Amino acid sequence: MHPQLFFFLFITFSFHPCSSQKNIQFKSCAPLPFSCGNFTKNITFPFSIDGTSPGCGLPDLHLSCTSDNLAQLMMNNVSYQVKNIDYEKQIMTIANMAYINIDDSCSYLSINTSFDYSLFDYTGNDHNLTYYGCSIPLNWSSSGFYELCNTGDYYYFIAVAVGVFDPLGYDYCDSRYNVSIGKPYSMDDLMKVLADGFDVMWKPGKDWCDKCVRSGGRCGFDESKPNDPLCLWPNGVEILAGLFELPKLVARLPHRPKSSTQLTYEKFNMGVD
Ligand SMILES: *[C@@H]1O[C@H](CO)[C@@H](O)[C@H](O)[C@H]1NC(C)=O
Ligand SMILES: *[C@@H]1O[C@H](CO)[C@@H](O)[C@H](O)[C@H]1NC(C)=O
Ligand SMILES: *[C@@H]1O[C@H](CO)[C@@H](O)[C@H](O)[C@H]1NC(C)=O
Ligand SMILES: *[C@@H]1O[C@H](CO)[C@@H](O)[C@H](O)[C@H]1NC(C)=O
Ligand SMILES: *[C@@H]1O[C@H](CO)[C@@H](O)[C@H](O)[C@H]1NC(C)=O
Ligand SMILES: *[C@@H]1O[C@H](CO)[C@@H](O)[C@H](O)[C@H]1NC(C)=O
Ligand SMILES: *[C@@H]1O[C@H](CO)[C@@H](O)[C@H](O)[C@H]1NC(C)=O
């Protein structure tokens, strides 16, 4: 079936003129300029900043600006620097703030940079780095471990050889840290690689927001149903969940639409492949 016909049909069948989200509007979800240090971006769904209207950006994806002028996102109580947001690819580059301006305390190593899987996914660009915390110095040359840092009575090691023993099997090593990095590291640039961060793909809007934006709409959500897609259009028409994946219908080709509502559909239609 012709894709445009298909699209016209399911919109015709699924239009919800009296949806409950009428308080969330196209114009209130306009992109908001955000500037913090070197980071300058127009912020739209799924992100929010101070001033984002309810329903336009998720509170869990709130960007702020630190006193050091770093764009910040808090996740699982861990503070990340936001280095880039690519709306088209739905990829954000973030770095654990602990790895920036590190001091001699080693405390920056005692943090996992695991992230919130309900909101984010790995991308193909990521690599894992695993290191261990131990109460005695391991002998690197005999054990295959490289010391990253020590506090005097606690030592952090990274395994540099494949197939070395698991230090967690020993009493004196009691912690393991998994950290995401954006590219393979060498010992010389490990701290830089950590500070450069890694890519994550955000999940909210994954399957529909790009289509909504390309059709001239803006993405939003209803706070009572935050997981349901909501595409806002200038004339107030809202398109709800699942519309992009309805089963195919068989019907005759309709005449050219005439009403203003149908014209909007047509515009939407053109925005989708
Ligand atoms: C901004 O960019 C400049 C040059 O790229 C860099 O030296 C500086 O550290 C950056 N500042 C921040 C806050 O990222
Ligand atoms: C934000 O949007 C405005 C208006 O469309 C545009 O002029 C500006 O260049 C954008 N800023 C960034 C950082 O993309
Ligand atoms: C997050 O940090 C706050 C303040 O430091 C603390 O009170 C809270 O328990 C932490 N929450 C989690 C889940 O670790
Ligand atoms: C890193 O670890 C996560 C969680 O165990 C896994 O899903 C991901 O595939 C790993 N990435 C690489 C490049 O090994
Ligand atoms: C580390 O192990 C090597 C080989 O087993 C040994 O020659 C060296 O003395 C050890 N170094 C320390 C500091 O224990
Ligand atoms: C770090 O994360 C790994 C994987 O989730 C977990 O096994 C480990 O206990 C965590 N370490 C600490 C110190 O929280
Ligand atoms: C931690 O990293 C190790 C080694 O890359 C991997 O086998 C393990 O699945 C990771 N665990 C988590 C919870 O990410």
UniProtKB/TrEMBL annotation:
The signal peptide here is: 1-20
**Chief localization:** membrane
Q: Does the keyword Signal apply?
A: yes
Q: Which UniProt keywords apply?
A: Glycoprotein, Signal
Q: What is this protein called?
A: Uncharacterized protein
The way it spans or sits in the membrane comes to:
Single-pass membrane protein
Name the Gene Ontology molecular function terms of this record.
Answer: polysaccharide binding
Q: Where in the cell is it found?
A: Membrane
| Pfam families, A to Z | GUB_WAK_bind (PF13947), WAK_assoc (PF14380)
Query: Its GO CC terms?
Result: membrane
Show where the Wall-associated receptor kinase galacturonan-binding domain sits. Answer: 29-95
Q: Which residues form the Wall-associated receptor kinase C-terminal domain?
A: 185-234
